[in-house]
Amino acid sequence: MAPLPPPSRxxxxxxxxxxxxxxxxLVERRFFWYFASLVFLGELVLxxxxxxxxxxxxIDYAAYMEQVAGFLGGERDYSQLxxxxxxxVYPALHLYLYTLLSYLPTAPPTASSLHLLLPSDNLxxxxxxxxxxxxxxxxxxxxxxxxxxxxxxxxxxxxxxxLSKRAHSVWILRLFGxxxxxxxxxxxxxxxxxxxxxxxxxxYSLALGVKMNILLYLPGLxxxxxxxxxxxxxxxxxxxxxxxxxxxxxxxxxxxxxxxxLPTYSYxxxxxxxxxxxxxxxxxxxRFVPExxxxxxxxxxxxxxxxxxxxxxxxxxxxWSEDGGEGAWxxxxxxxxxxxxxxxGRRLGKREIPAILFTSNLVGILFARSLHYxxxxxxxxxxxxxLFLTPFPLPVSALLWxxxxxxxxxxxxxxxxxxxxxxxxxxxxxxxxxxxxxxRERGAAQEKEVEKTKVD
Length: 456
Fold this sequence. Notes:
By secondary structure, the protein is an all-alpha fold. It has helices spanning about 15-25, 30-55, 60-70, 90-100, 110-115, 125-150, 165-175, 180-195, 195-210, 220-230, 230-245, 265-270, 290-295, 295-315, 325-335, 350-365, 385-390, 395-410, 415-435, 445-450; strands at about 80-85, 85, 255, 260-265.
């Protein structure tokens, strides 16, 4: 890394030099990676300290290993892969990832290098798997910083990513599978920003192969495909995504009467079970709703209807600036007229792509039938980005973030914590609507950076 550049004094400032250094480090684009590197090093040290001093708590990892044991033992009926928490309810790539992790010893290692890293007579159990997840957490931070930099989000937005107790717990300590899906979908976002559409579609499908919640991005992704690629290539990319979903469960294929190998019915209904029921005792977002209403099927249908309606409204909102101001209808007409060349005949902005995708994800989270604590990882790294899109002043944005963090950090959830979480998520979505929902208000640095999008 090059030496730290001197602070800018382009504009008159009454700040003393040390405060001017801090200000520039937080907001000037040329200081972005210096500041990100400091946060990264802090996260590395904090992660190692967490592994050293915070005890491992078993939640789902043992159950994952029991499901892996059934797979390695030759079981190919997906519904029969079970653990202490019940049957396997995640897609095949989740199973394969934890199959690889099953080869890591969970007993305290004796390697001298690890003793030097975390000196203790009694090293924590599951240390090696937790080190893998710490590496994943740090990789996710770097990927987040890269997307923020591309989208011209100031570096101070990275600060909240280092302040969440719940995020460190979910990503580093508890060994949940959600982080792998989140990392893969962020990789896909990075590819789409660069214009690597096929690579992005492959990574998106791999993320979906880990966790079904990645479907929450699909409404926004369909619009992005329409804008950038046009309707015909939109269909081709969807076929690619579906094809990968059909290939991933290869060990669970069966031969039908037409001799076409397909995933078994037990796989499809287990990995993509849309009818799963949730217990009120574990909900983070709907604790303030009476249990009889929470369990009522009509409540679930109402949430689904609300999600569809809000997504439809945002589909219209995301198109306000399209096609000379004609909006969504103009975008449809343009796409139909030029189905091969792209919906709007322009490259999509580097802020536009994540803005639409992250908002689509937020809508799904807001109206989810139930959120559990590990689900915070679904949008945790997106919160500062989304808050930056709103017209809220910085103190209001900080307060919203604090309410969201309070909702996720309160265990067990209460009427207050779940109400604040839902309300803050809703206000965030409203703020995006009245702010830069399209991600089209680019900063000066991006205006100077003109790249021609490459299409795979």
